[in-house]
Request: fold
Amino acid sequence: MDREPETRVRVWDIPIRLFHWSIVVLLCVSWFSAEQGYMRAHLVSGLTLLALLLFRIAWGLVGSTTARFSNFLHPPRRVVGYLKGLAGGDKIFHAGHNPAGGWMVLALIAVLLAQVATGLFANDGVRFHGPLALLVSEDASTRLTDIHGLIFNFILLLVWCHIVAVGFYLLVKGDNLVWPMITGKKHRARLPAELNIVFTRLYIALLLLAVSAGIAAWIMIQGDSIL
Reply:
């Protein structure tokens, strides 16, 4: 007798899920440490964030199907068409990020990278300097510090938009986007009929993460040597 197909299908790999929730934690740590003046913790959090972002970019090129930029970054025309269909009540299913959510992911990565980059050259006006702050003039460091603060406000806006979108899908469309990011699986009824997801081996993710962490550690070492 043929076995019944499983009702839930794996769509997200472990690296993507760990990346997602690690970013959530690191954003909270970075905010809290900056507010409380724990600048060493803020630095470590920022460099860890940098390592994860570098990893995510690499994983977006060679990772599993749903992790790849080529899978979820669509032309503007398709994004507009998706949003019109969504407003019209169409049921359009995607294994990974939908066309609108894909660009949100890219925007968050880009803004977080900008936040980390400016933080490397920032200072608190008292004792703390970013690891590369002494490579630029004091005025440039101060300007980058101001930009660093402004970008954080933009990050909060994007996070708010993301939360609202997730709430919309849950409450209006009945589609829970959070649980699959925890378990890695989606209900088969909410997946495209034709589904072909290839998962990249975990050791490749570990290798990419090691390289990314090495870059972040090198930046910290360079900062210590400058000081």
Summary: Strands lie at 8-10, 185-187. The CA atoms of residues 195 and 216 lie 37 Å apart. The mean pLDDT is 90. The chain has one domain: 11-226.
